[in-house]
Amino acid sequence: MPVEQPGSTDPSVIRNFCIIAHIDHGKSTLADRMLQQTGVVDGRSMRAQYLDRMDIERERGITIKSQAVRLPFRSDDAVDYVLNMIDTPGHVDFTYEVSRSLAACEGAILLVDAAQGIEAQTLANLYLALENDLAIIPVLNKIDLPAAQPEKYAGELARIIGCDPEEVLLVSAKTGAGVHELLEKIVRDVPAPIGAADKPARAMIFDSVYDTYRGVITYIRVIDGHISTRERIQMMSTGAIHELLEVGVISPEPLPSKGLGVGEVGYLITGVKDVRQSRVGDTITSERKGATEALGGYRDPKPMVYSGLYPIDGSDYPELRDALDKLKLNDAALVYEPETSLALGFGFRCGFLGLLHMEIVRERLERESNLDLISTAPNVIYRVFSDDGQEIVVTNPSEFPTQKVAKILEPIVKSTIILPSEFVGTVMELCQQRRGTLLGMDYLSEERVEMRYTLPLAEIVFDFFDQLKSRTRGYASLDYDVVGEQEADLVKVDILLHGDPVDAFSAIVHKDKAMAYGTMMTSKLKELIPRQQFEVPIQAAIGSRVITRETIRAMRKDVLAKCYGGDITRKRKLLEKQKEGKKRMKMVGRVEVPQEAFIAALSTSDAPTKK
Amino acid sequence: MAFGIYVHVPFCSSRCGYCDFNTYTATELGDSVRRDTFDDVLAAEVRFAASTLGDGVRAVDTVFVGGGTPTLLGSAGLARVLEEIRAEFGLAPNAEVTTEANPDSVDERMLGELRAAGFTRISFGMQSTAPAVLRVLERTHTPGASLAMASAAAREGFEHVNLDLIYGTPGESDDDLRRSVSDAIDAGVDHVSAYALIVEEGTPLSRRVRRGEMAAPDDDVLADRYAIVDELLARAGLEWYEVSNWARPGGECRHNLGYWHDDDWWGIGPGAHSHLGGVRWWNAKHPRTYAEQVSAGGSPEAEREVLTAGQRRMERIMLGLRLREGLPMEEVSASASARVPGLLAQDLLDAAAATDGRLVLTAKGRLLADAVIRDLVD
What we know:
The complex is a heterodimer of chains A (about 600) and B (about 375). With about 600 residues, chain A is of the alpha+beta class. Chain A has 14 helices and 34 strands. Chain B has helices at about 25-30, 40-55, 75-90, 110-115, 130-135, 145-155, 175-185, 205-210, 220-235, 255-260, 285-295, 310-320, 335, 340-345, 350-355, 365, 370-375; strands at about 5-10, 60-65, 90-100, 120-125, 160-165, 190-195, 240, 245, 265-270, 275, 280-285, 300-305, 325-330, 360. Chain B has a nine-stranded mixed β-sheet with strand order 7-8-6-5-4-3-2-1-9, with helices on both faces. A three-stranded antiparallel β-sheet of chain B has the order 10-11-12, with no helix packed on it. A two-stranded antiparallel sheet of chain B has the order 13-14. The interface between A and B is medium-sized, with 24 and 41 residues.
């Protein structure tokens, strides 16, 4: 098979596309099948979900880091094409990364499970693709499933994108049925890339991955000109110049080339060790005679949610620091700084793109560095204005001003929820409780509804997704995007133990929910904290005003009133064990609190359910 | 320093539901261990102890035969063991010689024989006089038996008589306990031990609690019950001298004080613990293993530990603080003594004693003794 050499591929035979799909709708399986059918991977070396690198991705069935694979494909009319399949992340927290992946493509496969229909995140990404003027190829996957309803969901897709139901391709990535037809449709429907070969080089970074051996591997799409190994390159956002150690394409293993030309997709290695030096969305040009104008759309990753991350065993603090430093190399969005908590000891205040990002970071830290971690309740970014007009940015309840405030702004999101119509009532109720405003509602089909709400981000990070899932028996899907701020009546609720505030339990909540939060925390702590030698009041307070109180009665008996005769050893060992237990206690003022109590009180499993 | 000998008799006629002591019924032991010749085995360890100590043998200040149910050896068996101790070690003048007894395993004749053999003190496991409580505890004796035997023991010339009480048994009321304490006082004894019922893992009682058939004693209730015991006994002239022990002046158990004063003693019998100058060891627990090792002329020791200075100090604080005489202030470290003012402020340590340089628990402190001890050890 004649293969177009990377670096000199005629743009007219290039097709750049991505797959937009919900978790579990079979994107990775379809990618695997394409690798196989185009012959770049033989059956023997095929492993499931070839493109998903990390264990955690394989286990969760989601792709966090996208990659691009170059697939040579000879069409039925005997033309040799080069297909670049760009894998996109599939979750709400990574909208920006998705948008950059889309910007590297001319077409998108809209892949939907034929037994489930489209989900909210897929819909949101579809809108992104339409904004980027991508050619959309609607595909229903898993048509081999007995539960598949291709007609119903083809109708749904047709209505959403405005095509004919017959145009929806039916595919089974598992069996391979329909995959060849899909490849044919890609070369037919996806436009070839257009760029000026004679202009200064401009390439867009759509992904950046840290590799232990090679340093940062940067994935790019060349728009104009030519990226050549003989030249040094420049990052246009910072002006930084880098040597070009290697340029190539992935097919599906890295394959070095002399360069990359217009419309081509590949990788480059410069020897930098931190993905922050090679940022998604940035434009790369050549050092000499470089472009003067960057491609549009670059944005610094901005954390939206903050949380304290602490090692359960305080002596693991250095390991946590090292693990974060390491993870940072591969995660341009992660920010952190040291933080000390009375209750939890030494840890880090971390900023994340969103809840999933937070979960993934925590899980990777725990898994890759073998740490046990506890995180404090997630906090969004508030802007608090004092009476004299001073602005304070609050990412941590401890920063909430104690004096009177004039105005508080909280971030709000525009959210899309897709759900079976029978659950509309209960989801409306949930959104109302969470201070949502209904923006609109559309029937995708008779049984499925798309609802659009404005909601405070703070309400979403507080177990909203769990609530949504449980109210809809798992059938609802959610997508959201931060769109701005609104003024809100918020207060900081402190939890006091014997008069001393416990920093880890403070929370910024809406005034109407302060009581519910206070009651929940005080009653939880009453169960978790053992009796002391004195009575311990547990209070929830707004400023100096106590809003709710529980009491742990004084312990009256703590003595082994039993005779072990001459077995002093047993008694001593019991005492030594008790002493050990006492060492693991944290002192809050005079109150001894077992570490487990903090952890249980903060655990997300019985996270605050708001009323 | 006093020197004592403890003798463990690992037999019971039946096993009480709450008991986790090292004791066995005839059925549990089967043919492997013979009760009727067990005094021989115990006597053999007495000889082994004497020969091991060699020149270090000294007259015994206290002997305590416990169990189990020592009286299952019969007065002759117990006399035989005591005779061996007398022969190998000698008894100090005014030696205290105690045996434990089950009210229904002795009678007046047997009490007379024991007294004649040289026993000076007897301790009955009375537990309670409330029939319902005795049933829960699976005690086989009648409510009146202990009282009758306590009086009989006094008549037979025992110098000291103790009754053991258990409080906090499921189903016990405050009044049940008051009556039991009054009954014990009325029996004229000079010593009472009162222990809170502890639901020990692996006992039939713990299984019943786990199945929800009865509630484990509540700490607040136990605290109230302790206060009842302390008040009634003190009013009758029996003062506390250890957290769980009350006596008339001169009626304190010298043998047990030996444990709490960090004195030396040799423990004879299966599972018995010994202490000599900072070395602790304990015997093979099962009577069969024990008997085999002793009969073969060897040591029945299972394990030993040589205490570090820190461990000895910890033990002195742990044991000494439970005594009414308390602990000299110098026994605790500088960092621990910095916590004394806090304990005084909480009314856990006695202020008057503290000015005299001693750490003594208050009534409230006795109930929180373990917490105070944790504060005073490093």
